[in-house]
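Bug #77: duplicate submission created two jobs. Keeping one. Sequence:
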Amino acid sequence: MATALFRRPLSSAFSSGAASSNTKNKLNRNGVASPNCTASFIHTTSAMSSAAPSQPAPDRDSQTVTLPDGRTLGFAEYGAPEGAPVIYFHGFPSNRLEGQAMDKSAKRHKVRLLCLDRPGYGLSTLQPGRRMLDWPDDVMTFASTQNLSKFGVLGGSGGGPYVLACASKLPAGVLTHAGVMCGGGAFDRASRVAGVVPRRSRVTAWFATYWPSALRVMVAGLAGTIQWVVRTRMVSRWIDNWFAAMDKKEAERKTEEKQKKEAAKAKAIAVADTHSEGSIAGSDFEEVAAVAASVESLSTVATTKPGSTKAADDDVHDVHEVDPEDEEDGEPKRSIPERREAMFRALFHTFAQGAEPTVQDAQVLCSDLGFRFEDITYDPVTFWHGDQDTNTPLPWIQQITDRMPHAVLKVYPGESHYSLVGHIDEIVAYFSPKASEAGEKTAPEDAEGK
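Kept job's structure:
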């Protein structure tokens, strides 16, 4: 996701300009600074690494394309190479490697995740004078280099405003989905008057707007401090212990879920066995369909919402499918030291080109939006947010969703900005081909919508 340093608003417009570009390591395509944020930054990147035991080959996570103006745009690819394409926008400040947290889930749900470095971060060239208005252009150009006529967009934290920029300005029919997880809020008058902008973000916005040189010094100092602190034995030990605790918690969760799944499957099969003989013997096909529907509702691999239809044979078969989480993905789980080093790589890569990209990103996110939330016609734009998020408090994001005509907000009780990472699998599943076919794009379960 992103750091606690800053969570931002938006602004954007799309001016057409799909241009030819050169792609490095191109695979086969299917068309388809707050001075006190150090601990939060470490925590966030730790969560990312913990959620991603698999690690793609370097050539997949370090690719580039050349844009029409000669700039380089870096990107990483995770998940299923032939899956449904989703372009991911990282948080603030961060980089494309943030997407590794979703690699395993993307594979499981057949999603091809393409994570872009914004200008100046990671492998991407800094773009002087950049504004939010420019981002949809870069996204469309990138999509053309990957032969994507349609794709979804997902943004984490500070990447959320960039999703809204695309939802506002990209041509109709291009986006298949638009989603924001723990997204940043707006800095417009309505949010300021409502008093929902966190103090930390207000301070960062003030420096970015009125004293960027000071912010530049703070970011540079912060980056240097982080690189020194995380390499100390004490912090390394703390990180390793945190990984171990997360592994234990995840193992307990999987054990509990597996027991529930097995009980549900056993019950569904028992119901099917009880009814099938009499129903089939009497040619009561409606009864067979009803039993199949009950099996579907209990199946752990089903994604169909109540009321949606599916072939009865498929529904019954779902009960006997292998739980995807129990399948080997062909990649051994990395050791804790390996995951720690992967975390450090993602952490340090954000500042590979110095402090300027972070300062510029803050300025872009603080600038005038260029569009109104009320004018975003894309339907729906889905938001996932924890009600205990202190980096981007829920009332802040509600200042946006309440003004959008087609916003769908799913709130997670008890979850914070960082613990929402525990729901990544559910979020990625929203973009899967199976969920789209089942009609889940329009209304995630337990979501608030208009």
